[in-house]
Amino acid sequence: MSMTDLLKYCEQHAPDTAQMIEALVRLESPSTDKAAVDRCGAALADILRRAGSHVDVLQQADRGDHIRARFGDDGSPVLLLGHFDTVWPLGTLERMPLHRHGDRLHGPGTFDMKAGIAIALAAASALRATATPHPPITMLWTTDEEIGSGTSRSAIEAEARQSRAVLVLEPALPGGALKTARKGCGEYELTVHGVAAHAGLDPGKGASAIHELAAQIAAVERLQDLPRGITVNAGVISGGTRPNVVAELARAVVDVRAVTVADAVAVDAAFRRLHPARPGTRLTIQGGFERPPMERTEAVATLFGRAAAVAAVLGHELREGSAGGGSDGNFTAALGVPTLDGLGAVGDGAHAAHEHVDTSTLPWRAALVAGLIAELK
Fold it and tell me: Residue 1: pLDDT above 80?
């Protein structure tokens, strides 16, 4: 195998890779709009078929249909994983038009993460065109990652269990670094039921749900441990009806993140132990960790080492780091399957108005993915 041949192919076809990003971005695909997501998915499925894969459309009732593609069928595959849903509502292209400024390609969903899909397709094409031996490839592109992966998690885990490694095409860290660790992400809803009363005439007959909720928020805030990477944020609060009424109901939604599985388990247990501090109030707790932490295990470190070796041959020093947000790679890593994240585009602005990818880096990123797949044979 010649890494030089892979890189040369990816360089020659860099305009095609950029055009594919543009085509996918023009098909706006907000997570909660099934019709829009499915239009993008149908186009993606057609591209994958023309690339020589066998495509299965994993139909969903309420979310967009997930797309699975298989290249080759002899042996345990490498799973290329990502999503084509975005956080941007329909019509965003009107105020954030797709455009180029030098080496930057701007547009909603470019960086997170339609460029990653184009990079994966370029890598598969490079392997095929150069006749480079490689293991089978499965691509799984999902439609609900941005809203928790509720309909895709079972398919992700099923494919991961059959795979020798998982390469996640989410965006890179600044400078192109890969992600070898991610925080686990949880969300808890605290609901307090109190007793309503007139705040002036009969305050002693009431039990304030708001005052109790404030005490509960203070309690969960004490779980935060920034040096250990445990964060707790009460991001949504509601309750009460009028200033002169002792509140009968109050609610808070709390975001929680942890670096290790052990810490996630401990934080979850602490939430389950919460109990009312004020007589007359009742507390209910819903939620939990939606994504387990992706820890930098020995298997993850070994896979990164192989990627770094491929990058070195391509003339790049590859670095690694951790991310505070989760991805579908959290699920696969938690199964013990070697997982490497952040193999997608170099750029900036995920979920932001300045979202863009650096098109000058597309060739070597695609060659990196292709070379790593080949190394995993």
Answer: no
- Please give the CATH number for the structural domain made up of 3-182+293-375: 3.40.630.10
Q: Where does the chain hold its CATH 3.40.630.10 domain(s)?
A: 3-182+293-375
Q: What is residue 121's predicted lDDT score, i.e. its pLDDT?
A: 98
Assigned CATH topology for domain 184-291? Alpha-Beta Plaits (3.30.70)
Q: Is the pLDDT of residue 338 over 60?
A: yes
Residue pLDDT, tens place only, 42-87: 999 999 999 999 999 999 999 999 999 999 988 999 999 999 999 9
What residues are paired with 135 via a beta bridge?
A: none
CA atoms within 13 A on the CB side of 301: 4
Identify each DSSP E strand in the chain by its residue range: 54-58, 66-71, 78-83, 99-101, 104-106, 137-142, 165-168, 178-182, 184-193, 197-198, 231-239, 245-246, 249-258, 282-291, 320-323, 339-340, 347-348, 356-358
Q: Considering the chain, tell me which residue range(s) the CATH 3.30.70.360 domain(s) occupy.
A: 184-291
- The reported pTM is 0.94
Q: Using omega within 30 degrees of 0 as the cis cutoff, is the peptide bond preceding 113 cis?
A: yes
Sole residue written with tokens 């944020």:
233
Could you identify the residue written with the tokens 């070379």? Answer: 371
User: What is the distance between the alpha carbons of residues 191 and 284, in angstroms, rounded to a whole number?
Assistant: 5
Q: State the residue for tokens 């990003």.
A: 21
Name 138's Cβ contacts closer than 8 Å, sequence gap at least 6: 68, 69, 70, 71, 77, 78, 79, 80, 159, 162, 163
Residue 372: partners with Cβ closer than 8 Å, 6 or more residues away? 167, 306, 307, 310, 340, 343
* Three-state SS at 231: strand
Token pair in block for residue 333: 């890593």
First to last CA, the chain: 12
Q: Can you point out the beta strands (E) in 21-177?
A: 54-58, 66-71, 78-83, 99-101, 104-106, 137-142, 165-168
Q: Report the alpha-carbon distance of residue 229 to residue 79 in Å, rounded.
A: 29
Q: Residue 225: phi, psi to the nearest 5?
A: -145, 90
Helix (H, G, I), strand (E, B) or coil at 343: coil
From residue 25, how far is each of 6, 92, 97, 284, 339 by CA, in Å?
26, 11, 10, 42, 27
Rounded Cα distance between 264 and 291, Å, is: 10
